[in-house]
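Hi R.,

Here's the chain you asked about this morning:
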Amino acid sequence: MEWKLFADLAEIAGDRVIAVDAEPGDTVGDALEDLLEAHPALRDRVLDDGEVADHINVLRNGSNVHHEDGMGTRLEAGDELALFPPVSGG
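And here is the predicted structure, written out as tokens:
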């Protein structure tokens, strides 16, 4: 599986696309933990008191996992995972 990272998350990790060891049947939470173990600098930006911060969007196939089973959402082959921090512009 791969995570697509946007804005400052990509800068912190050093790349926009990060491969992780998660496989079909694992959860989004498992895949996120793999990402954070490989790139610990992301942990403080993504988590708040051990949970995904309210302002971070976790997407699976373009849909927020909050509308599925949250971090317990099961992964399937070919899933696309993404992390979006808040972005503002003018």
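One quick note: Residues 1 and 78 are 8 Å apart (CA to CA).

Cheers,
M.
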